[in-house]
Write a structure and sequence with these properties.
By secondary structure, the chain is α+β, with helices and mostly antiparallel strands. The protein is 57% helix and 14% strand. Helix 1 packs antiparallel against helix 3 and helix 2 packs across helix 3.
């Protein structure tokens, strides 16, 4: 998950060897633009891996059509954060104009 201000990035790293299977790493950004760029990169990786857009995935996932796999949970969280940051940036741009 990526956070800006009150947001933070939590990356779940799954160990292939089974040692310490879930390790969290926090990355903080100083601007919403930096955070949204990182999220867009992460979403692109998921989209390439699973062959569908984040929007399509999110719709199917929340309708219960996909399993609760850890990768899907992370993808869903990343997409939610992306949408929230995008709305925040769009609001700021509207008020600046």
């Amino acid at each position: 998950m990526i956070f800006y201000k009150s947001w933070a990035i939590f990356l779940l790293i799954l160990s292939i060897e089974g040692i310490n299977p879930m390790l969290k790493q926090t990355i903080e950004y100083t601007s919403p633009l930096d955070a949204i760029v990182e999220l867009a990169k992460r979403l692109q990786v998921y989209e390439s891996r699973y062959g569908m857009s984040s929007e399509s995935f999110f719709d199917q996932y929340h309708k219960g059509l996909l399993a609760d796999d850890i990768a899907y949970v992370e993808w869903s969280n990343d997409y939610r954060h992306y949408l929230a940051l995008r709305r925040e940036l769009e609001d700021k741009l509207r008020h600046a104009a």
